[in-house]
Each structure stands twice: as structure tokens, then as C-alpha cells.
């Protein structure tokens, strides 16, 4: 028996609570690793696809091929908008590939200089990505009209804000706030990738009902916000679960959310790699474009 503040406490419940806390912390840790691993692998494939399709089209002198992925994406007479969206794609690929590295604790602890320099590149890329997208929207708008303009515009603005805040807190050595904003920035950075993933998963589950070629169906309107709002919710759950005061139940709940997200993204990655990203990458490697 143990005594605390004059009270006798049985060791059984204390040990049980400690065991529950350790188990939930371990579950959260493994769920985080699983999600980061799936995101990284999928992001690599998507980044290679961006290089093969979008950069490849520019290298071949046929940027109009961009319109095969999304109508009106490239129009020769809209040079400023084209530069903006091109910069968005280029730096967005950097975000996808560098993000998971920046979240690895061992890198931060063992190679802090590398973490800082990659962080600067990451923040700069995020600013270009957000501002490039906002430039495109301001110059010509999106194919989906007002709902898509608002949703994508808010996404670009949030990306810029998160990048600035992550950098600002790092410079001020407020590392807890810096990590929180870095996690939010990563959650936003994977938005363009998740936008494709969500559509692919929806096609598998519901055969694309609610989607139109002009991106103004009810599902398209929902997707104008859905590709980044749930990410931020998951990010906030993760940030709060990492706090020392978070209980075992909160950590276990966060682990379940993250595990579910990892499984869903793994299925979507398989689908896209097999039927969309993979064929484009292979075609570029084999020189069939």
C-alpha cells in the first residue's frame, strides 16, 4: 500500500492506470508512424506523377496536356495564371516529399542543422505554393465557380498563415507552438494530394455520384472544403493528444482516428498507383509520351 497526502492508495488501480496510459501512448505512437509512413510512400508516388505528367508536359513543349487532368488549367493567353499554378505544382511537390522528414523526431534531435535548413526550404515552398494558387484564382478563377473559388482561396490563405506562424515561432524559439503550426502546415500541404485521393475513393465507393465535368455538382462543392478541413481536425487531435495532460482515453481515441486515416489512405494509394499515377510514371520512364 502507498500513502499520498495522508491517504492510503492500493497499488492495483495505480498500476492499472499506468499500464493503460503506457498502452494508449504506445498505440498513438504506432498509429502516428503508420500514418506518416503511408503518407510518405503515397506522396512519393504522387510527386513522381507530378514530375512525369505536369513537368513532363512542359519539357515536351505541350503544356496544354495539363487540361487532360483538369479543364482550363492551361490557357496560353493567361500567362500570369499559368506561372502561378506552375509554381504551385512545383513547390507543392517539395512539400509532399519534405514534410514527413521534418516530422521525424530523430532528425530534429540528431541533425538539427538539417532540420532547420529543410524547414526554411519547406516554409518558402509553402509560401510559393499558397501564393501561386491564390494568384491563379485571382486571375482566372476555378472551373467550379464561386464555391470552389472560396474553398480553394481559403486553403491557400491558411497555407500561407501556417507557414508564417511556423517560421515565426521557430525564430522565437517557442518550439511547442512551432511544432503545432508545423503539423498544421503539413496537414494543409498534403491537401492537393488528398484532393485526388478523395475523388478516387469516392469513385470506388459511390461511382462518383455528385461529381460533374464542370466541378459544380454537390460532391464537388463539398470537396472544395473537404480536402483540407478534415486534415486540420486530425492535426488538432494529434497536437492535443501529444500534450502531457492528455489522458489515456484521448490518446487512444486519437490513435483510432489516425489508424483509420492510414488504412483509408493506403487503399486510396493502391487504387491511384495502379490505375492513374503508376501508368503515367511508367509511360514517362519508357519514353512513350
Rg calculated over all Cα atoms = 22 Å
Major beta-sheet overview: 2 strands, antiparallel
Binned, the helix content reads over 70%
* Quantity of strands, as a count: 2
Strand content: under 5%
From the spread of the alpha carbons, the general shape counts as globular
- Succession of helices and strands: EEHHHHHHHHHH
How many structural domains in the coordinates? 1
Secondary structural class? mainly alpha
Low-confidence blocks of residues: 1-10, 14-18
Structure description:
The protein is mainly α and 289 residues long. The chain has one domain (31-285). It is 78% helix and 2% strand. It has ten helices and two strands. Helix 9 packs across helix 10. The chain is globular and about 55 Å long. Mean pLDDT is 84; it is low at 1-10 and 14-18.
Amino acid at each position: 500500500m502507498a500513502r499520498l497526502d495522508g491517504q492510503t492508495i492500493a497499488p492495483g488501480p495505480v498500476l492499472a492506470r499506468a499500464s493503460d496510459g503506457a498502452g494508449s501512448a504506445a498505440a498513438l505512437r504506432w498509429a502516428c508512424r503508420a500514418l506518416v509512413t503511408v503518407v510518405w510512400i503515397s506522396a512519393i508516388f504522387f510527386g513522381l506523377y507530378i514530375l512525369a505528367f505536369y513537368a513532363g508536359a512542359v519539357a515536351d513543349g505541350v503544356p496544354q496536356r495539363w487540361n487532360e487532368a483538369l479543364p482550363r488549367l492551361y490557357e496560353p493567353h493567361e500567362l500570369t495564371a499559368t506561372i502561378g499554378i506552375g509554381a504551385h505544382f512545383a513547390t507543392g511537390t517539395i512539400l509532399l516529399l519534405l514534410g514527413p522528414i521534418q516530422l521525424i523526431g530523430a532528425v530534429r534531435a540528431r541533425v538539427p542543422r538539417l532540420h532547420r535548413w529543410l524547414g526554411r526550404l519547406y516554409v518558402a515552398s509553402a509560401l510559393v505554393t499558397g501564393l501561386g494558387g491564390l494568384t491563379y484564382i485571382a486571375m482566372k478563377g476555378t472551373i467550379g465557380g464561386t464555391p470552389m473559388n472560396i474553398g480553394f482561396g481559403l486553403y491557400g490563405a491558411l497555407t500561407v498563415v501556417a507557414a508564417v506562424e511556423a517560421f515565426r515561432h521557430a525564430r522565437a524559439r517557442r518550439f511547442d507552438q512551432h511544432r503545432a503550426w508545423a503539423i498544421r502546415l503539413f496537414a494543409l500541404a498534403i491537401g492537393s494530394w488528398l484532393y485526388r485521393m478523395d475523388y478516387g475513393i469516392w469513385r470506388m465507393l459511390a461511382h462518383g455520384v455528385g461529381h460533374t465535368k464542370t466541378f459544380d455538382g454537390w460532391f464537388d462543392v463539398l470537396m472544395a472544403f473537404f480536402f483540407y478541413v478534415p486534415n486540420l481536425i486530425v492535426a488538432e487531435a494529434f497536437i492535443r493528444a501529444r500534450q502531457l495532460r492528455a489522458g489515456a482515453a484521448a490518446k487512444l481515441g486519437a490513435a483510432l482516428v489516425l489508424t483509420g486515416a492510414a488504412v483509408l489512405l493506403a487503399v486510396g494509394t493502391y487504387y491511384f498507383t495502379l490505375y492513374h499515377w503508376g501508368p503515367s510514371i511508367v509511360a514517362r520512364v519508357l519514353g512513350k509520351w
